[in-house]
């Protein structure tokens, strides 16, 4: 697993925990930064969590629009976290190619979620990636 993949997984862990606890992900992450009880938090992980949090309303709207037959509330929490990270990287992370953002999200779904999740995550993100040029222009 590459370094950025590890940082993405850490970001998903924080987003997932915040979702389950009904907490703010940035606040949760702040508690961990510099804490002697947890491994150091990389700047890329921080940027991902902050980016997802700052754009969460729009990210959730897009997921809801493209997750045919699924509401956010009905999705497994880990799938929500993976999709939020994937959408953020697709639309706001200029240094990440769309194919890489999708591939990394699918891999996280394989590692962390159900057998059906990788296909679901791929489908939602692929649908968003097809219109990403138009979405980026509107941001």
Automatic annotation (TrEMBL):
Positions of the NusB/RsmB/TIM44 domain: 6-130
Keyword list, A-Z: RNA-binding, Transcription, Transcription antitermination, Transcription regulation
Annotated GO biological process: DNA-templated transcription termination; transcription antitermination
GO molecular function: RNA binding
GO CC field: cytosol
Pfam families attached to this UniProt entry: NusB
Function: Involved in transcription antitermination. Required for transcription of ribosomal RNA (rRNA) genes. Binds specifically to the boxA antiterminator sequence of the ribosomal RNA (rrn) operons.
Family per record: Belongs to the NusB family.
Full protein name: Transcription antitermination protein NusB
Organism: Kutzneria buriramensis
């Amino acid at each position: 697993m590459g370094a950025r993949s590890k940082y993405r997984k850490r970001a998903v862990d924080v987003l997932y925990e915040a979702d389950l606890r009904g907490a703010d992900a940035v606040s949760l992450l702040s508690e961990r930064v510099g804490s002697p009880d947890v491994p150091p938090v990389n700047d890329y992980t921080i940027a991902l969590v902050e980016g997802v949090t700052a754009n969460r309303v729009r990210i959730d709207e897009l997921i809801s629009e493209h997750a045919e037959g699924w509401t956010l509330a009905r999705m497994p929490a880990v799938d929500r976290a993976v999709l939020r990270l994937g959408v953020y990287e697709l639309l706001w992370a200029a240094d990440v190619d769309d194919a890489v953002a999708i591939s990394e999200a699918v891999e996280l779904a394989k590692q962390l979620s159900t057998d059906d999740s990788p296909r679901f995550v791929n489908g939602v993100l692929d649908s968003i990636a097809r219109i990403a040029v138009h979405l980026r222009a509107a941001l």
